[in-house]
Amino acid sequence: MIQFMYIIIKKECVFMKELNLTLRQRQILNYLHNTDGYVTGSQLSKWLHVSSRTIRNDISSINEMLEGSHTTIISKHSYGYHLQSTNSEDLRELTQTSTSFIFKTDRIRHIVLCLCEAEKPMNLYELADEMYISKTTLDSDIRSFKEEYIDPFSIQMTINRSFVQIEPNERKRRRLLLHLYSQGWDYNHRSNTYYKNELISEKLINRCIMAILYTMDCFNIRMEDVNLVHLILTIAISIHRMDEGHVLQDVRSPIYEKPIAVQFVDEVLAFLHDQWDQEFPKAERVEMYELVSCSLIPDIDYATSHDASSYVDQKSIRLTNQYLNAIKEKFHFDFFDNEDFYQTLLYYFYYLSLPSHNLNYDNVIRNTSQQKLSFEMEVAYTVQPFAKETYGRYLDSLELLYLSIMISGAFVHLKHKKMRTVILSHLNMPAAWNIRMQVEHQFPDHIHVTNLVPVYMKDSFDFSSTDLVLTTVRKQIVSDQNISVIHINPYLDEKDIHAIDQLIKQKQYEFLYQKDFPSLLHYFDEADWEEKANDTDFNDLLKRVLTSLKQKDIIDDAFVSDVLCREQITGFANRPVYTLVYLSVPAKQTHISITTLNHRIKCNDQKIRMLIVLALSKEDTGLLYKFQNELYYTDWDPNASRFFKTKIEFMSFFQSVLK
Fold first, then answer.
1. Where is the PRD domain (predicted)?
2. What is the CATH number of the domain that holds 31?
3. Are 395 and 384 in contact (CB under 8 A)?
């Protein structure tokens, strides 16, 4: 149980002028602050989907604005960037803002706050003047606001030439505020990472935290951090809105409610009543009851020692079994023997069935998963027809992301054939033996060293029973393309470990191919190429290409609708420069379509130059995994080809990076 000191100490803070840092610059500061050691410019550029030059310019601007403060970003050649700060409170002030309207993200946040607080229609021209922007810019911001906040929460918005207003539904307005404050919550502190608490005071947040944690300790209950934050904010927003005269009037019937959750919430609110002198009518309590009821984490010892039906419903059990059987049939993985995974998956599906199920949105995890877990995402997506049958809906992108992360963990525990490895070293035996010990220690389930061989024997040694050669010299070792060769440092540094790990991941997926396919270069060369297309929107481009394939009778309407549905739900994994679109449902015939663009367009936060569409027959389904494996699970930088527009240019590039 979380230990908490129930003492609130007021600190006298030195006044600091608020700097006009962009959201990206505040993200850089926060990322560096929460990372030990140095972070490379490449890491930051990949995370934020900008160029290394943009990162360098941002850091230069940050250091200029921070001159004279207690904080600076140190740049060290070959190491990267490191944040040095002697005052963490000053740093926290720097990474938050409340008055900057230079950037769209900040303006949309301000629009949410204004519309949630407004009791009458807001004048658009006055709102534009307040943020020092044009009416045209505000109109664009309002459209983005509608997509991110209005549509997902089914809120009615009335807008005409001069005024804008959202429906006076108090419960929906509070959901908007909850969503706004919970996104980007700083789990190192007690507030949003990038924004100050404009409406809810830090004092109120601290009182809510104190009451909730103390009561959790008394009741001996646990919940995940994201749900704890939602409960803190739900109560704080409730108090703030009631203080403003906006009290929930209608008492709705609870959908899901546990007696212990009711007792817990009542105790928390009684504590706050004594501290804050605030009454909480029944209508205010119902959603808190429901939130806590859905958030309680079952005791792990109890869950593992009792039959699953004692703490989850039969629908979740059926969904879990259907899904694991589908994985076994399609991918030949048997996860039923992994009891820990089974219980975790069972609880996750049960959690998704509850009326309130919050998942922590983390940009770092999300961006990494889209590329690095592309195969796991394919396995996760297999659940969709069963989810539709069980929940009446498909899983959304965040729910699939967490499922793919879980699949990745389960995949690690599958037994794989060890790679027969030869160490070819020019150093004396002690050094070669050390390499062997380190490699087998780092990869005990994947590497089996069969021999230590001097370099001079490379031409006479029989490598026919070898899968991998680790060599300390930079020369060609074997001509057999089926044998992997990695050049390593005699001391086996982190770069070497990473290279071996990447190779292991690639090899793990090769058995999914089901048959031997030619190299990707063959398929790129034989593909149907369209060069220098002038499309400016990814969805329009995708629809146009799919329509063309349908007209050629390569795919049918079902294929088109399934691809567009998937793109709408979660999007296809992509790297900078290219994205791969496919469907595991078989096409009439195998056909690969490649479109290059005159100008790069945005796709899932990446700028792409090339669209690759795979339509695969049933016999060639395994080719999908070969494309994923060799395009996504690699270390070569696709940005080197970002200016290419023709088949000749791309073929030359792929010949240099693909085997």
1. 311-417
2. 1.10.10.10
3. yes
